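Go through this:
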Amino acid sequence: MKNKLTLTISLSLILFSASSFLVMYNSGIAGHTGSPGEANCAHCHGGGSSNSSAITITSTPSFTNNQYVPGTTYTMEITVSAAGFGKFGFGCEILNASNANAGLMQTAGSGVKFMNSGQRKNAVHTTGKINPGSGTFVFEWVAPQSGAATIYVAGNAVNQNNSTTGDFPLTPISLALNAAEPPIDPVGINETDLLLGEMIIYPVPSKGVSSISYALKESARIKIQICDLTGKELKTFVDEEKQQGPHTKLLNLEELAPGLYFVKLSANDKKLSQKLLIIN
């Protein structure tokens, strides 16, 4: 009876361990992103091969010149691809120069969850993406207000044999970003002496609609535009003669991507600008 009981307990432990093993490796685990001081998928998986593979990082809006706009919310897409495989997983961290979290990961997409690896936040798969040749994982990242940020990603292609053998862990990649600094004088802005007081934009930051208020000392040709950080004019809201006195104009910004811009007010040959952050 004792031997039978011992055998029953041993079998139960084996089944429990196997079940725990399958759950752990079908769902992503923290601390395997290939970032400094961390392991990657090859720590457990291996034995497989692929003649064409890649990990790609894309974002909306895009990182122009490997720069992020402070405070902007980016939709991140991590794609893991490997020919000959049909299920994929990933792990991602975004760290600053001190290897701590840079910005904020939020709003996990389908098949993605957030976990902590010590003090670091990871985005990992909840279950592998089943799709011939590649799997794409989506989440949001709110960029920090300043400093360097590096995106670290590890990926894995699995053969679905319910073990870590025969899988193909891809070489981790990283993408180094810096904060985009607006030019000091992007469009030759000068204080205008035609205004009574200052121009006021509200609300700031904007979620797609703001208003600009100003008052003129005398009649003037007014032009109100929004520009990107290089000074390129993107949209004109007003271009007409305005009379002396107070004025308010509603700015519809919904067609512009989240990010940092300049609102430029021109009164005759004088110009004035103010930064405006657009958020989701």
